[in-house]
Amino acid sequence: MAKKFVYFFGDGKAEGNAGMKNFLGGKGANLAEMTNLGIPVPPGFTISTEVCDLYYKNKNKYPAGLEEEVASHLQKLETLMGKKLGDPVDPLLVSVRSGAAISMPGMMDTVLNLGLNEKAVNGLIKKTGNERFAWDAYRRFIQMYGDVVMGVPHEEYEEILHKMRKLKKVQNDIDLRPADLQEVVKKFKALYKNHTKQDFPENPKTQLWGAINAVFGSWNNSRAIKYRQINDIKGLLGTAVNVQCMVFGNFGEDSGTGVCFTRDPSTGQNLFYGEYLINAQGEDVVAGIRTPQHISKLKNKNPAIYNQLLQFRSNLEKHYKDMQDMEFTVQQGILYLLQTRTGKRTGPAAINIAVDMVKEKLITEEEAVMRVSPEQLDQLLHPMIDPKAKKVLKALAKGLNASPGAASGQIVFDAAEAEKWAKEGKKILLVRRETSPDDIGGMHVSQGILTSTGGMTSHAAVVARGMGTPCVAGCKEMVISGNTATILGKKYKQGSWLTIDGSTGEVFDGEVSLILPKISGNFKTFLSWTDKIRHSAERKGISGKGFGVRTNADLPGDAKTARDFGAEGIGLCRTEHMFFDKEKLDIFQEMIVAEDVDTRKKVLKKLGVLQKKDFKGIFKAMNGLPVTIRLLDPPLHEFVPKTKQDIQRLSEKTGVSVKKLVTKTESLHELNPMLGHRGCRLGITYPEIYDMQVDAIMNAACEAAKEGVKVHPEIMIPLVGTQNELSILRKNAEAVIKTVFEKKKMTVDYKIGTMIEIPRAALVADKIAEVADFFSFGTNDLTQMTFGYSRDDAGVFLPDYLEKNVLEKDPFQVLDQEGVGQMVEFGVSRGRSTKPNLKTGICGEHGGEPSSVEFCYNVGLNYVSCSPYRVPIARLAGAQAIIRARKKK
Amino acid sequence: MAKKFVYFFGDGKAEGNAGMKNFLGGKGANLAEMTNLGIPVPPGFTISTEVCDLYYKNKNKYPAGLEEEVASHLQKLETLMGKKLGDPVDPLLVSVRSGAAISMPGMMDTVLNLGLNEKAVNGLIKKTGNERFAWDAYRRFIQMYGDVVMGVPHEEYEEILHKMRKLKKVQNDIDLRPADLQEVVKKFKALYKNHTKQDFPENPKTQLWGAINAVFGSWNNSRAIKYRQINDIKGLLGTAVNVQCMVFGNFGEDSGTGVCFTRDPSTGQNLFYGEYLINAQGEDVVAGIRTPQHISKLKNKNPAIYNQLLQFRSNLEKHYKDMQDMEFTVQQGILYLLQTRTGKRTGPAAINIAVDMVKEKLITEEEAVMRVSPEQLDQLLHPMIDPKAKKVLKALAKGLNASPGAASGQIVFDAAEAEKWAKEGKKILLVRRETSPDDIGGMHVSQGILTSTGGMTSHAAVVARGMGTPCVAGCKEMVISGNTATILGKKYKQGSWLTIDGSTGEVFDGEVSLILPKISGNFKTFLSWTDKIRHSAERKGISGKGFGVRTNADLPGDAKTARDFGAEGIGLCRTEHMFFDKEKLDIFQEMIVAEDVDTRKKVLKKLGVLQKKDFKGIFKAMNGLPVTIRLLDPPLHEFVPKTKQDIQRLSEKTGVSVKKLVTKTESLHELNPMLGHRGCRLGITYPEIYDMQVDAIMNAACEAAKEGVKVHPEIMIPLVGTQNELSILRKNAEAVIKTVFEKKKMTVDYKIGTMIEIPRAALVADKIAEVADFFSFGTNDLTQMTFGYSRDDAGVFLPDYLEKNVLEKDPFQVLDQEGVGQMVEFGVSRGRSTKPNLKTGICGEHGGEPSSVEFCYNVGLNYVSCSPYRVPIARLAGAQAIIRARKKK
User: Fold this and answer.
1) pLDDT number for residue B288
2) To the nearest 10°, the Cα dihedral for A101, A102, A103, A104?
3) Cα–Cα distance, A830 to A817 (Å, whole number)
């Protein structure tokens, strides 16, 4: 039997249904479904997406039999309607629209009013008795067909209309008379001929196939390709083509058109929401010439239609169990639904709708969890521009949405200056070409960061995301010169107010009112469901349940914030971040330049007292939860003074000569510090540093425990590449711990584990696991070394690589499952071949990126860890990963 | 049945044999073997190495039954000899010696003359009638026993002897009279008691067990452990203990002792070679007090003994089929063999013996190939100090043997100065604290390099090895200050002559005569056998035979040298090395600072002409052999001028302002250049550079082919980490090649492949293989990234890592099979899962390191590639790998 390519819908029954989206496209499947539901839908037929696929596979040729199948379905449509395409007495008009399985609004082509020609337009006049309407329909058809099918420039049509309006001295097209429109049609046809070197087709079949070709052709126009790329839409067969009887909302005051949502798409409130226009076609709404009315007004204007809509609203939502976005047209008092689809919504709306629908018993909690995307959740987690304020704002410029959230502040161009202003209590926005490690202090006190160069992985972007500070990076329209930023000609001096939206990349003039995130109400309920799912997850091959979410937090304050956001422990506490504090940095520098081990130990003792205080604060904030503390990781030269004054100061403090200090700091210089003397390599050469840190951690743990805090310290040794490194350092640590326990006359539970961040560590994970209580995958460094990319330098070629599609995604943002992912898999499987229940987690930046979280779950990790503001996203992404995995089983 | 631990030998038959080395140690197994061969060996018994193993495993306790077994064997020995240990009438004296399966000369302990006590010494006097001999034997026993078993300081014994000689006004111990020696014995015993707080043991059984304990204990003394570490001796059970009747060479003029070799161990000549001393014990030879006689003198002195020795020489060599090192003692006219073992020999001797023995049909070619170690071969491949000269030389100082070969030259402290002197035709030796990339020019013109700091992987060491230039690195005794080097107080100014031996690390005063390597005669024959084996090697799963050896050569001259050394192609031609030539560097810099693509292309054209010339030269030198050419690899900043003058000069040349040039060069700076914008990443961002190179390669190939040269160009793209990179660059290259072929109206065969040097590339090798004709493993970078070590920086912690045994070997010298090796395996197996016959090779420095070559063969590579002077070593290592693999089957 020949394959069926065309599916009819009309007269209360359809050959397709909502389950056939992949095959009929979203629009086609829903038109069929609505038809079957008895909802008034103008009849028509859908040519399947498979045809599109075969068309491209077979060098732009249609499969055999398609032409006949279309012809027979057209005949069926003509018979049902009692009209014929191109009929000079009672012509059938159809629309030809695209519709893929996933909505790609505005990306592909549509032709309306198809079937009109010189004879049929007269038939339409006779049949409708509305000469103006008929000529207007005809000129619209010529315009769309020329534009969409033959590439005649849209503006040239508009130019003709514009001239005609001017000539006739009228404001709107609607005021042109039939004769004027007839004249327009003539001119349109001349324009068409001029461009295409052929007459406008009179034969409706020719018109129909022209339109079908155009729709299939539009699947691979550059706009559509780009859209699919950006939105990561893959694996579709192509677009379907929907040929459907036209209905007209512009038949007079008893006609109209509108769009409505079954709930408010911006808040999620369970209110009927939408807009309509009397005597208009859909495109008039889009054109924005006339202002539409709120749907509620229809209640008084036309209660019958309104009630019918309410009924459809209720039926469709119950049927589809999700908020619907419906298009309708009223032609001479008769309501038609032209489309229904899942309505797009804001983050807050998504949460509210999902939670409400569970309460209404429409969907289950699991279904609700799948209804909100991690990206939508992200909208709720950063200060954002008050939606009320945003309505009237216009962006000055747009950069990269480097770190989400909005921020307003007085602009400052220098990090030191920023720190000064912040001390004076000013809200400031740090504006720089690009930031460097020297700017850390200034970045820390800023509300937000705005740079003119640099990409998504620039220093500013990476640090800002880590800090949870909003950042717009690479805003090319901004030129910085001295203490002035010029944005599109307008100058902003130091102290001027600007606002940035790091979620969109927009930059606004002045101070704008912001609203702050809070986890309460429906949001809280929603997240509690994600937790329920995560905590119940069975893990194949591992004893115990659950997939945890921890946080990367270095200071007690961050730990508290993260816990409020639902963190179930600390997955990474970077001890070196504690040293950036002035007092500690001074001591740390003293330690580095110490000329012998004894001096070093003496200085370290001072440092230990201060570190202990920090650790105790963190244990308290995380009472009852595990805290993974990483011992010193960066190379020492990151801490030494760089300026003459700072060296002078250090010399005075330590009594070591400036000359010696300069020699010392120079000797620490490395050609490739990323691959240098850091992490456990420091721990091996300077055991006294790690000893001090372990001593501080365990003293803090014991003291906190004595005060009633439940402590679960996990000591993590970074940059391990061989079993020997870890076994030596483990022994050292255990010796220190033993001494602490003896002194304190008590013990606490603890673990000693390692980062897996060196490729070799993943390869020999079976050996390393012999001496490790846990693994934490440091996917930042693992990505750097597996790819051989320095994150600090890759900015030079990575943008080019993404542009040229050498890489699909920035591997520092989205875990490279194909390559780096294998390393993680090795680490887990080999580690567990030695210790079947080895606890494994991730603490790279990927731990808060949804697709990476899913990978981590699937590969068998026990938890992910991410920055505090990403914790709710990881909670959701984790739950969704579990649900998807269950479905696949 | 209880396990047998003790093996008897004597009276013409033995319980052991030469095949039991692992169990009886080399000495014990050979004593047994000789006994069975009817060679006169003093009888005795061997306690097996397994006892040593059990002793350590069981906390220094012997296995049950050992004591009884030793006792019964002792009794058997006493019965055979008709003497008894400690007998006051006719005492049996025995030696107790160590002997592991692999010889560890001088590392473990020996006790001689055991069995003497106050009574037995009198028995000995009576029996021998030689009072002096008996007292001397007794004092020797007390001295050795005290030293070896109880740790009484050797010097204190010597001090007593010294005082006695002084007192008696004699020069030598031999001149002391029996009474003096009796006095010495008394004092020795007092010394013993003073140190050990106990009397010297009178009971011979106590003595015996004391000595056995000491020998087993010496297996794990720090000296022995270190020796095994250095010589990479692993997997032994322990040492055996040989208890053997004493024979004495110091019984008078009819007695003597000697060591002889069945062939000359320094040249390999088939001449009886050795030395003997009349009336002496073995230790007297070692002590060097008397000068031994050449063995040939014995012919006249004692023809009977000499002829007997000649007979044993012939029998033993025929039996063992290898050159033997024999120890003998003549006691009162009777010859005893105390030991035979495979004789150590120099590299040239090893070759000559192996080849001669094949000619003599003693061994097969395969056996001959296994008889020469790659290290021995290395001795033949570098200029070396004339062995005649070396005999009288004494080293001034010793550094690290960083790059083999000897070199004499006038010392110069500055690279630029070195270039100047070299132009004047002087032979120079570059002396620096450490070298840097700026010194490349000076290094290139130097005979050798000597540095005072830096290790085996320092810049000087790595570059020198690459260049094949002798280098002694890290010579700590040398202090450089301005233009003077001070070595142990002696000052050497610029222009002074020094000589270095990079094979040993020694530094000599003045100019020393050197001899140069040549492959001819036996050496050539020997290497031809290795080739036969390599060419015949069947490769499982790959069609075709053979395991190739190629070379890394960048210039026609190097290619010629390598071919003379037997290279079968070029595995790595680094195109960028061509740019270090002044003329090309100028143009290259011009290209880098070009402000637009057109200027860049114009400059590249000039460069292309020059590169083509080099490539043509290489194709000619390699006529008929494959030549793998790697496209530009290092980051551009390696080529930009660094000094003010150079920037000024470039500015004048290009017309680009100094300011712009400074900005440009600064913008090229990278934090981690190793992981930066280099290799194929440059090829993607600046396609015109690779296009120029491919154009030059293929034009050169076509032109050479027209001149009758057989060309096999293989274009290699470096630093690939994703399939996309290679497929894009392959397409670009193919387009250029097509154009060249069209222009030249001809084609030549070519291949396009890639380096596997990024960990990710190894992981996705199956995908990369889809677009690659070959893989070449760049194990230098692969090691850097798999370990996360920068070779430039690792010098800070690697020595510490090796010292503390965190790493067994420097992974930049010996391929880390456990970690990096997995990456190579992935690359091969995954690559071949896509293309079963994918050609694979290695071009990292490991390609010339024997254990790494063996790994490469076993993992399935088609060839290794190494620096020209390592080619013969790789040829041998490859053949040996094949033989070993066949044996394992």
Assistant:
1) 54
2) -110
3) 18
| Nearest residue of A to residue B794, measured between CA atoms | A676
Of B684, B763, B788, the CB nearest to A675: B788
R_g of chain B computed on alpha carbons:
33
Distance from the Cα of A817 to chain B's closest Cα (Å) equals: 11
pLDDT-wise least confident of A552-556, B694-698, B718-722: A552-556
Residue from the list B671, B804, B807 with its beta carbon closest to the beta carbon of A673: B671
Residues of B within 8 A of A731 (CB-CB) are none
- For A374-398, how does the pLDDT look when each residue is reduced to its tens digit (9 = 90+)? 988 987 888 888 877 877 788 999 9
SS3 category, B624: coil
- pTM comes to 0.84
Q: Tell whether the model's pLDDT for residue A638 goes beyond 90.
A: no
Cβ atoms of residues A499 and A408 within 8 Å: yes
Q: How far apart are CA B634 and CA B554, in angstroms?
A: 15
- Kindly give the pairing relationship between strand B863-866 and strand B839-842: parallel
pLDDT given for residue A641 in this prediction:
86
> Which residue did the predictor score with more confidence, B282 or B170?
B170
Determine the pLDDT at residue B728: 97
Residue A746 CB neighbours (<10 A): 13
A109, B528, B751 from B561: Cα distances, Å = 69, 17, 25
CA A404, CA A501: separation in Å to the nearest integer?
Answer: 7
**What's the sign of the alpha-carbon dihedral A107, A109, A113, A117?**
positive
Instruction: Say if CB A429 and CB A406 are below 8 A apart.
Output: no
Q: At what angle do helices B644-654 and B658-667 cross, to 10 degrees?
A: 110
The strand ranges marked E within B597-756 are 626-630, 712-717, 751-756
- Does the annotation mark B444 as catalytic? no
Q: What's the whole-number average pLDDT of chain B?
A: 91
pLDDT of B1 higher than 70: no
Q: Between the CA atoms of A303, A305, A310 and A316, what dihedral angle is there, to the nearest 10 degrees?
A: 170
Q: Residues B697, B699, B700, B702: is their CA dihedral positive or negative?
A: positive
- Residue B281: pLDDT band (50, 70, 90) is confident
- Quote the CA–CA distance of B473 and B608 in Å, as a whole number: 38
Lowest mean pLDDT among A186-200, A602-616, B457-471, B505-519: B457-471
SS3 letters for B2-32?
CCCCEEEEECCEECCCHHHHHHHHHHHHHHH
Q: Name residue A811's amino acid.
A: P
User: Whole-angstrom Cα distance, residue A367 to residue A355?
Assistant: 10
Residue A403 has a pLDDT of 81
Q: How far is CA A48 from the centre of its chain?
A: 30
Distance from C-alpha of A669 to C-alpha of A638, rounded to nearest angstrom: 9
Nearest CA to A822 among B862, B764, B255?
B764
Q: Which of A73, A382, A459, A846 is catalytic?
A: A459
- Alpha helices for A266-302 (secondary structure H): 282-287, 298-301
A210-238 pLDDT tens trace? 999 999 998 988 878 877 877 778 889 99
List A46's β-bridge partners, or say none.
A7, A242
B260 annotated active-site: no
Report residue A595 as tokens. Answer: 């000329």
Q: For the residues of B589-615, what is the DSSP string, one character each?
A: HHHHT-SSHHHHHHHHHHHHHHHHHHH
Q: How confident is the model at residue A288, as a pLDDT?
A: 54
Strands in B115-172 per DSSP E: none
Find out whether A15 and A8 touch, Cβ atoms under 8 Å.
yes
Confidence (pLDDT) at B326: 93
- Tell me the per-residue pLDDT of B838-857, one tens digit each, with 9 for 90 and over: 999 999 889 999 999 999 99
